[in-house]
Amino acid sequence: MTEIERLVRRRAAFKAQITILNNYLNELEGKFINANITDDIILTELSQRKDRFINLIEKLDEVQLQIEEITTNFDVELDERTAFESDFNKTLARARYFLQKSKTTNIEQDNDNLSSQRSETGSDNVALCQNLNNLKLPAIEIPTYDGDYDTWLEFRDTYESLIHTNVNLSDIQKFHYLRAFLGPRVREIIASLAFSALSYKPAWELICNRFNNSRILKQNHVKALFNLNLIHEESSQALRKLIDIVSKHLRALTILDEPTNTWDTLVIYLISIKLDNETLKHWEEAKSGYVNPTLDNLTTFLKHRADMLETLEQSKNSKRVIPRSKGDNKTKAFVASKPYCVYCKKDHYIQNCEAFVRLSIEQRRTQAMKNHLCLNCLRLGHTSKMCYASSCKTCNARHNTLLHEERVSSSENEQTVNLSSHINFNGDQVLLSTALLKIFDKNGKCHVARALLDSGSQSSFITEDFCNKLQFDVIPTKITVSGLSEAQSNVSGKISIQVHSKVNNFSFKNSFLVIRNITETLPNFKINIKNLNIPDNIKLADPHFYKPERVDVLLGADCFWNLMCVGQIKLNNGLLLQKGKLGWVIAGRMQSNPCTTTIRNFSKANDIDKQLTRFCELEEFRHSKPLSNEEKLCEEEFVRTFKRDSEGRFVVTIPLKQGPEVLGDKYDIAKPRFLSLERRFKRDPEFKKRYINFINEYKNMKHMSKIEHPDNATFSYYMPHHGVIKESSLTTKLRVVFDASCPSSSGYSFNDLQLVGPTIQSDLFSLLLQYRTYNYVISAI
Asked: What are the record keywords, sorted (predicted)?
């Protein structure tokens, strides 16, 4: 018996208990209606059956979760879950209704007693209410609960204190409030209950049973600690937000009986990797004074750091250049501040700093932006737009003379062409690929941007409106953007930002040209997603691709091909699903009603000087190509580690840019792909046989070995692999591919860490020349 068959049998046994209780209620229903029996024995038995029945749903839910984890037909199991949860809720509601009906007389008597008590205490409350009427307090609002486990405890405690335990409200009123404070998805849980006073308590118990799941609550709070937002630069607001988020989730875990007082080392690490470089540097210096630093030590440090940064931010905002107006005879006193260089930390202005002057122009600009200096006067407290100092002495532009950069090519030759055409024709509609991105602003706040993926554009673009939300400094750039019929618009600047995927942990840094508008809302036609049959396990990069929305970012060819992965699924209606690092994107031609608008995006950068330089380089014959810094490091690593082992084989280490510790967790990605590979083994015995032969050959050649004690490893990295069949191959029909490009939880893949060495083979041009020097050559296919 397989594992899934065993679980299905267990589920059937639990479902049988629902049927047994339902049949028992059918028998009691006639007795209650005909003779109105209120036998205590029957009521006690029914109460005991109900209590055992409530515990049944947790066991049934656990079995269903195990089935859903290993099943290949998720839609069938989802329907199965919906069916038994509906039967369970209806049966439980009937049992509680019968118990409540037998106690109706006692409830009415209790209500009469309660009314008399209210009348006796009413006179005492009059004076208090009159006093409170003169005091205006803010209204306490109960947030609508939408099923998020992170906010469950807050909703439950607020609702119970204001509504559930309020003796002044009847059950029918409480039921009305409960339905009003639940979101549409949560309200479906109690949709089968009749709107009556007797249904309130069963409804509240159903909600508590569903969401008062300590296991899932703990899991979500721990997940939030691992997914803290990265702080890109010093900010008091971002540090305080980080402290508040960590404290909130740790308090919640403590309430859920987790021993968080022993988690200091883990939480300190999770916080440290999210700090900006300057704050992390100061923390490393501060923690050297502790033998075993605690979480309280780190929290105290961050609070003091935030206070200091807030003081500096206020000081920067207060230091403004105040022009003296004519006719102003008032006496003003100013405190003369000592000159201070933010680069070398000495007592002189940065313009007079020898170390700063020795830097390249690009490095000076980077340091000025990093320290929030005005790019015009190189001082703190304002931006170049608010600066009254003189401009560059070389070109009169709004930047300091030390930041002036000579341009070899003129701005007329360096231009970006962005073609966007609208053509009337009768043909199929074309859906362009889009993705949702997460971009953090200067203060660490996350903004969601919609990106258009365009491999025909040499540059990437961002709209001015979205760029203003980020509050980053924009580098002025003079570039002209032209379209069809030579319609022109200007690029206002250039910005370099970190972009994050919305569906996974992948991120990358890219430069964007700032432009007023990229294109119109996409898509420009209606799409019926019910006819597409998109697989449920696919995570779309843009789940709302069918909704016409504004495009904030255009990702051009400078990053487009690095975002694509191996994997493509053909949908009906002519569309394609393409796997990418940002998630799956959907695009293609749709067979539907004729379309009257076609949008073409194309970007091209022309530079006459660069074209002439490339032409000269093509005609020039070079004996050797100089190595780059990365290629030199790679070659030095090879020379240093190259050796032969005792069996005569060559051994060399893999050259890495960074240490392997930056790689995140890969087990959760590699395991499902390996299980998928095993499922393919069951379907294709020949494929399984070839795969096993390859693994045995790999092991016999000592290319891999078994890890005897995996728990003792200080670092582990799991690399997914899959097989590619090519029956037409004369040598190797199965080729096993090790996916070192798959990103880990930190966003880095193993390929990202490897250095790229120099090209050893001759270039194509040399091979072609050599090919032509012989009268006869042999070619093989």
From this structure: Coiled coil
CB 570 within 8 A of CB 471: no
Measure the CA–CA gap between 27 and 47, rounded to whole angstroms. Answer: 15
227 vs 488: CA distance, rounded Å? 44
CA 164/CA 132 separation, integer angstroms: 23
Of 240, 246, 225, 316, the closest CA to residue 279 belongs to 240
Distance between CA atoms of 456 and 47, rounded to whole angstroms? 70
Parallel/antiparallel/unpaired status of strands 721-725 and 602-606: unpaired
Per the rule left: phi > 0, alpha: psi between -120 and 50, beta: everything else, 410 is beta
* Contacting residues for 578 by C-beta, under 8 A, at least 6 apart: 433, 564, 567, 568, 584, 585, 586, 587
- Rounded to whole angstroms, the Cα distance separating 755 from 632 reads 10
Instruction: Kindly list the distances between the CA atom of residue 299 and the CA atoms of 220, 241, 248, 293, 443, in Å, as whole numbers in the listed order.
Output: 22, 12, 13, 11, 19
Alpha-carbon distance of 63 to 80, in angstroms, equals 12
Is residue 249 scored above 50 in pLDDT? yes
Helix or strand or coil: residue 651?
Answer: strand
Torsion sign over Cα 277, 280, 284, 289 = positive
CB 496 within 8 A of CB 516: no
The backbone region for 773, taken as left when phi is positive above 0, alpha when psi lies in -120 to 50, beta otherwise, is alpha
Q: Measured between alpha carbons, how far is 144 from 154 in angstroms, rounded to an integer? A: 11
In DSSP terms, which residues pair with 462 in a beta bridge?
Answer: 514, 553
| Residue from 39, 19, 18 nearest 28 by CA | 39
Q: What b/e readout covers 664-692, taking b as 16+ CB neighbours within 10 angstroms?
A: bebeebbeeeeeebeeeeeeeeebbebbe
The rounded distance, in Å, linking the Cα atoms of 41 and 551 is 69
Q: Within 288-353, where are the H helices?
A: 295-318
pLDDT digits (tens, 9 = 90+) for 176-234: 888 888 888 788 888 878 777 888 888 888 888 888 777 777 888 888 888 888 888 88
Q: Identify the weakest region by mean pLDDT among 89-98, 270-279, 368-377.
A: 89-98
Q: What is the band of 483 on the pLDDT scale with cuts at 50, 70, 90?
A: low
pLDDT exceeds 80 at position 570: yes
Q: 592 falls in which pLDDT band (50, 70, 90)?
A: low
Question: How many whole angstroms separate alpha carbon 690 and alpha carbon 688?
Answer: 6
Domains of the chain with bracketed CATH: 3-106+139-216 (no CATH), 217-318 (no CATH), 350-403 (no CATH), 415-606 (2.40.70.10), 660-753 (no CATH)
- In this structure, the number of other CB atoms found within 10 A of the CB of residue 344 comes to 13
> DSSP readout, 664-717?
---HHHHHHHHHHHHHHHHH-HHHHHHHHHHHHHHHHTTS----S-GGG-S---
pTM of whole model > 0.70? no
Mention every residue, 6+ apart, whose C-beta is less than 8 A from residue 221.
Answer: 150, 249, 252, 253, 256
CA gyration radius for the chain? Answer: 35
- Residues 6 or more apart in contact with residue 230 via CB below 8 angstroms: 274, 440, 444
Phi (first) and psi of residue 214, to 5 degrees: -65, -35
User: Tokens at residue 359, please?
Assistant: 């830097």
Q: Which residues pair with 514 in a beta bridge?
A: 462, 493
The H or E element that residue 482 is part of is strand 479-482
Give the list of residues 6+ apart from residue 682 with CB closer than 8 angstroms, or none.
688
